[in-house]
Each structure stands twice: as structure tokens, then as C-alpha cells.
Amino acid sequence: MSDPHGAVRIGVYTCHCGTNIAATVDVKALAQFAATLPHVVLSRDYKYMCSDPGQELIRQDIRDHDLNRIVVASCSPHLHEHTFRTALKVGGLNPYYFHMVNIREQASWVHVDKAQATRKAQDLVCAAVRRVAFHQPLERGRVAIHPDVLVLGGGIAGIHAALTLANAGKHVFLVEKEPTIGGHMAKFDKTFPTLDCAACILTPKMSAVRSHPNITLWTYSEVTRVDGYVGNYKATVLRHPRYVDEDLCAGCLECLDACVYKQAKVPDEFNMRLSKRKPIYIPFPQAVPQVPVIDPETCIQFKSGKCKKTCIEACGDRHAINLHAEPEIEEIEVGTVILATGFQTFDAARIPYYGYGKYPNVYTALEVERLVNASGPTGGEVILRDGRKPQTVAIVHCVGSRDENTHRWCSRVCCMYSLKLAHLIKEHTGAEIFNFYIDMRTPGKGFEEFYQKLLNERVHFIRGRVAEVTDWELDPSEEGKLVIRAEDTLAGFVRRIPVDMVVLATGLEPRADAPEVRRIFNISCASEGFFLERHPKLAPVNTFTDGIFLAGCCQGPKDIPDTVAQAGAAAAEALALIDAGYVETEPNTAHVEEAVCCGCKTCISMCPYRAISFVNEIHKSRVNEVLCKGCGTCVAACPSGAVRQHLFEDDEIFAEIEGVLSNA
Amino acid sequence: MASAYGYFPGCSLKGTGVAYEESLLELFRLLDLPLAELQDWNCCGATSYMSIDESSAFQLSARNLALAHKASHADLLAPCSACYLVLRKAQDYMQKYPQVAREMDPWGNGNLRVLNQIRVRHPLEVLFTDVGPDRLRQKVVRRWHGGNVACYYGCQMVRPYAEADRDHDPVRMDELLEAVGVPTVDWSLKTKCCGGSLTGTAHPVGVRLNYILLKEAARKGAQAIVTVCPLCQYNLDAYQSEIRRDTGQRFDMPILYFTQILGWALGGGYKSLGFRRAVAGRKTIAQWFAPARTEKEAYV
Fold first, then answer.
1. What is the predicted ipTM?
2. Which of A359, A654, B29, B145 suits B216 as a labelling partner, its CA being 20 to 30 A distant?
3. What is the pLDDT of residues A282-341, one digit of tens each?
4. Which residues contact residue B64 at a Cβ distance below 8 angstroms, ignoring those fewer than 6 apart?
5. How far apart are CA A599 and CA A597, in angstroms?
6. Residue A470 is nearest to which of B166, B188, B219, comparing CB atoms?
7. What is the pTM of this model?
8. A471 touches chain B (CB under 8 A)
9. Would residue A650 count as lying in a domain?
């Protein structure tokens, strides 16, 4: 073979990885084989190539033997490609004169026959040696990071992330869809397992958000478009009109009293429709911002134009109410994004045999949260829709969780919130309470102790998924009651338990608008629809889009402590990027040979990262190397071969194929 | 006119459930919907076969489906819920499990895919989708003067294949009956067990399940139960005197087929709708459906 590369001098290093590789691949034979390959000047095997002495071997050999290409046969590039590239750099070589062969995950770990595993390792090394001869020196790029952060979602996750960043001196745009921040947590009465008051720990943080100089809070708003890339995102925020000017309103709420509706008539969303509100309303007393909102769907002025507009009269000289307010569009530039869009609870009506929506005394857990809450629709009294106080209550676990017919996952919080509700209902009513569970899942600090406490409070626990909630009665003792039928799997028979009230512990599911958020931010989801983290263990708050982080239940069901921890982690990841000031980009990106490009735009439609744009003036495609992830889709798709990719040039790939096939 | 629906009667509609066949044929005649009975049909494979030897059950189904294909039926109506279920199950399983497909066609020379193209349908679903409550309402010629009825769907028509109606809270029979002016009661046992073949094998258990249904229907104010399945109808109809003996409770409640009531509303004959074959509640049936002796029949 003639030598097109000048004096290519390759060093090949075979790693034993202790016995991980050496037990199944004959590493000595592999090293000897590598020494026979073209341009290979030196071939060694070593126990742990990733160790400091292992790396030093490479560095020393580069100097002593004048090596200019390195191949390491060891584990996955995911683990140590960076390690070895750094070793090359320290040794004075361009780090991209390197190729890594995975003979662990792709040979030793997946084969049992040593001879054949060794043979496969030889083929792979042969391919790498051929390919590395064609490698070119490449440089990593740098992108500056804009210091501002967009936090989407004003629940406890978004609030905590925003405050962490703001306290570190970064400017945060907190965008919330609802008229107030607080999210689901604001609806809770107490929190498990400590039973501290949810409002008492949440509302100070909500006020802090409102008054923090580094936070721009936009409620009743949504992000409609995002362009750009890590460090340089441009977001478009649509601010729905609340018809009460946030800057002018003093929060006196006189307009609420003045509304021509003397009685509230509209189902109150915050109270799970268990009470009524007026067309001009504030979701709850501690709402942030403390500014009413007018619901045009129910306001007489919007519907007929014939209202006396007593709210405007009451507002007087402040002139905060503007019924002609229009939606506003805000364009912002941020460097990083934290998605904290949360969850929705499972729609219990999807399981007809639990009778939600059919029997008035079947409630969801979130409805009962409002009932036990002192600021809720009943002022904290647990009473049924007909005003009676329940004497027996059933709590049905796993409604919409761990169920092949609905959702297969465990929602993680339901066992614990069911315990909490059992305690609270008992405290409020003295009722006899039956929990129907599949397994009690109480793995958290103080959780099991809380379960024990409930057992001591003589709450009943029956192990068995509830078959149905029904009104058919077998004998007069069941008259007027709801009957729970469930197999008691510990006692081994079917129970019928008549109760006054049924609480369905509905699970957590991705929000209905999650696909829309994913589309806007270009992130992916797992099969169940929760946003996908980059790595379940090692990058749990990162996404596959650089600079976009996840916090809270949008990534998967979790309780408040875990949500806050994750929000802190997401904020820390954003801070790490911001304070570094820049990110380095991988050079394995695609680039368009403009002389060959015919402007057919095939590549643009194929690119999953929206990294390719069309330059109209020259009628050619152009790759944004910051956005490009090096997936190669456009390279394969280009009908004229105009798109090429660093580290995946044709000659490199063909050499690799030849290599893997040549060891016949 | 559309081509005829294939009609698979199964054993029940020729035996205990003959009133179902009579009323079904009469109703379809009144609606100008042609039915063509499958020639040389055999046992559907349900119940006894299914629980003892699944592959024989599926082979029996496969033959019936093959006959329907041969007769070029796009739709095959199976009024008995057990027949309906086993035919649907055979189709589903041959698609899902290669082993079942092999057993159905041990010679490997048949084209099983064509068997899956036949739409196995329950008459309730056919009447709901192909005719619909609105058209039925227009065709009503008799005004209802009977009492409230409870629509009882049983288990096999809706589970596991919720194609004929919703799986746990079916409503289509209620909607069709309401459309022809029959008041239905809402009750929670629409798909509870009728006792099935337990009335034969574990008699007290089967009869108790019957009793529960009758009692709850009565408690909810129903004076009759309307069914879609010959086994449900038979079970509920046949043991009322025994229940009376055991519990002292007298129901004497008519157990009707939905096709009988719809057929009556559309002007079908007392005899041709099979009303005289009922066991329980004969007096009520006579009051509600028998032709008035004097003139003044309640024609709309």
C-alpha cells in the first residue's frame, strides 16, 4: 500500500481492564496482531490504560517514538475518549489524531468464546488502524454564554430554581401559564411526612420571587417560540391579557366585591371546581402576583358588552382595569433554559368502575386536598357534597398508576399523600378509614415512620386493588352507601366495604401540553411522555439539547423534596455554564461544500436539531456548527454528496470498512 | 341495497334462545336489512371447548370464518355473546400468536389473513352504527306503555374486545331503547356475571349471581331486564321460581331481548317476535306487548 499520509506512525494500546477484557479477549495476541498492521510503529498491552501510568505510557511513547496517531482498544468512547484525547494533547499531539476501539462492551462483555472474541477485537483494531491514518487535526470551537436564564413553570420547581439563580446574581425570566405562581403545591394543605403546612413553606418563596430584583415574573404567559442554541437562545413569550394592569393594581381587591355578580357563579379551578368564583377573581388569597384577573369567557362585559362595569368604578383613580388590553409579545435572549412545567393528575373518569363523575361522593385526592385546606371551599371541613360529615372513608390507591390499562408507572407520591390524607381526614372527622393498596411504597426519609404512625392511628390497610366502587347493595346495611369491592389478598377473600366517601389517589401523568413544549424546545421524551433526561443517573437534569435543563415532575413523578433538589441541581448546572462564560463544541460537525451544494434543501428537512439553514443569497445550505450534533443524517441524505462531516469523512469510513473486512 | 349481513346463529338461537332468532329476523326485516344465514355452520367453540381444549375451539371458529369468507360476507353477525367473543378471539389470537395460527391451519395451505378481514359484529353494534338511534326513532310506530327496563349487557360482548360498546359502562342498548321511547334505569350491574354456565355446574353459585342481578334491577325501579345474550336471558328467566322458593322473594320479571322491544316498537308481531316463549313475567309481557283485544291499540 502506498503511503498517502507522509510518515504516519501509529501507536496501538490494548487495555486489559483488569479482567473485564483480558478474561475473554487474548490481549497479548491482540497486541501482537496490531504490531503487524501497516504504519503501526508500536503496540502495547496494559492492565488499565485509563490509569495515570497508562496515560503516561501514551505521552511518553509520543515523545520517544515520534508517534503521530494513537489507537486505544479498551472500553466505550462514552467513558474514556475524553481521557485519551487529553493524554494526546498533553503529549503534544492534536487530540483528534486518535481513535478508540470498544473491545469491552462490544467484545469481551458480550461473548463467551475467547478465540472468537479475540478475532472480533482484531477486526475492530484493524479497522481503527486503517481509519486513524486518515484523521486530520481538528479544533474545538467556543460559544459565549448569555448570562440570563429562562425558567418555564412557576411551581415549586421553577420557583426554587429561579430563586437559586437570582440569588447568585443571574437575571431570571420566570414564565408561568396560570395567573399565579405556586403550582400544585399551593393547593395542598399539609405536606408529608412532616405535616408542615404547604402554604407556610411555599408562600414566602412566592413573595421572594415577586420582590427579587433579579427575577422578571410573567404569569398568564407562555413561550411560543425558541430559536438559537446553547448560550444564545431567543425566546418569544406571549403574555395573555389579564385585563388588570399589574403595575397599576395595588392588590386591594375592591373590584372583586364590586363585580355585578353578587354571588360567585363560575366553577373555581383552583378549588377543583368545588366552589365558585366571580368572572374577576384572584385564584387564592396568597396568589402572586396579588393582581386579579378577568376571565373573558364569563365576564358579562366581554359576553354582551352591557355590564355596568362596577369593577372599573371601584378601581377609581388607579385605572388598573383595562378591558381593552391586548396580548403582549416579549422577545428575550437567554443563555440557558430550565423547564419546570410539572404534571397533571390522572383523569379518574377514565376508569368507569371507580364511579368518578357518576357518584357524587367519589372524590379525587386533589379535591380532598382542597376540602381539608382551611382556605378551601369548605373552610377546612371535610364534608360531602350533600353537607354530611363522612363516617367511613375509603382511599383507593394506584388510580391510573401501575395499571396496564392506563399507566404502567408508579407515581411515587400517592402512597404517601394517601397516608397524609388519611391522617388529615381522621383528624377532621374522626371517620373510620380504609386504605386499599397494592404495595405500600414509603421509601423516603421519615416515610416508613409516618406509615407506622398511621397504623397506630388505627387506619385500616387492605392489600388489594379495588375492583369497583358501586352503589348496588346486598343488604340494608349498605343502603345509601358506596360499596368498595376488593380482593383482600392477605386474607384471601373478596371484601365488600360500605363507605360514605371514596378518595381516588390519582397518579401523576405528563401534562397534555407536554408534546407542544417538547416541540418548542426541541427535547425528547420517554415512552410515557415525561421529558427525557440525558442520562438517568449521571445527567439527570440535562437534556439532549445543550443548555436546556429539567426540574420537577415534567421529568417524572417525584415528591416535593426531590423536586426542590432537582431544581437546585438544574440551577447549578445552568450556573456552571454561565460562570464558565463559554462552552466548547465538538468538531465532529457537518459542513456543506458550497461548490457542490445544489440548494435542494433535503438536508434542512432531515436535520433533527434545526441546525441547517438556507442562505438565500447564494442558494446553498449552511450548517450551524454550534447546533450540529454530528448525527450524520444530512451527510447520508445529501443527494449530491455536498454535506461532509469531520471525523466521518468518506475516506475515513471506507478505510474503516476495508479494515474490518481485510483480516480474512 | 347493501349486500346481506352474514348471520351466524350458533346453537342457542336455534334452541333456548329461539325467541332471539325470531325477533332478530323480524327486526332486520322491518329495517330492510338482509340477513343470510351461514350455510353449514358448526359449533362456535365457546364455553366447554374453550375451557378444555383451546385449539379445537379456535379450529371450529376458523371453519366458521372460512365459510363466511367463502360466502363473501364482509360482516358476520354473531348475536350470542359467547359466539361473538370466540370468533373475535380466534381472529385476534391467530394474528398475535403464530402457534395458534399453526394450530388453526395445520396444513399450512390456507390464507388465514382473509379470515381476519371478516368483521365479526354483534347485532347491538350493527344496529347502533349502521342504523343508529335517530333512524330507529323515525321508524317507531308503537308508543311505549310498559314500565322501566334495565339494560343488561353481560360480560362477553364488551370484554376484552370493547368494540360492540364501552367495556365497563356500556350504553348503546340504553340509547337505542330510549330512542324508541322505552325508559331505562341506570344501574351498576350492566356487565356483572349472569352466572354463565355455573347454573349448570355449580348451581347455587350461578343462581345466586342471578338473584343479585334481579334484586338490584328491581331496587332501581326496573320492571323488566333487557339482554343481548341468550345465556344471560336464559339464566335470568329460568330460575326465578327457584329463587322465589329459596329466598321468598317474588320477582316474576320479564327477561327480554333488545331485539324484541325494538321490533315491537317498529310494529313487529307478538308471535313473530317470540314473546310467547318467555318463562317469567308472562303477565307483564302480555300487558305490555300483546295485541289489544279491543281496538284502541296505542298506535302513534
1. 0.86
2. B145
3. 999 999 999 999 999 999 999 999 999 999 999 999 999 999 999 999 999 999 999 999
4. B8, B38, B41, B42, B44, B76, B87
5. 6
6. B188
7. 0.85
8. yes
9. no
